[in-house]
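Hello,

Our lab assistant flagged a job as stuck in the queue for most of the afternoon. It eventually completed. Since we weren't sure the result was trustworthy after the delay, we are filing this so someone can double-check. Below is the sequence as submitted and the structure that was eventually returned. Let us know if re-running is recommended.
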Amino acid sequence: MVDAELLVACAVLAGATYLVRLAGVTLGQQDSFPEPADRTVDAAIAVVLAAVAATSTLYDGDQLADWPRASGVLAGAAAAALRLPLIVVLLAAGGTAGVLRLLS
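-- returned structure --
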């Protein structure tokens, strides 16, 4: 049976998604987008992406993820921060996690 918390979380996510799409349609019809609103939307997008990345990195289901996964993500983030090509970023992340899992 599905928990009530899961249903509430799905309803909130669905409502927020609908509001974001509605705001895009409504604001997209305007000729100019106010600068403070533009900065707020940019910051909100960054916060949501960081939250998704953090939860995907640190949790595996309802348990904490293993440390090789976190280390692999950290290595990939470092490679991305150095603006290396995407294939290098992916190989750094996957290789780091793979080698650490092999050693542990």
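-- support follow-up --
The delay was a queue issue, not a problem with the job. The result is valid. The CA atoms of residues 8 and 14 lie 10 Å apart. The helical segments are 4-28, 35-58, 67-81, 86-103.
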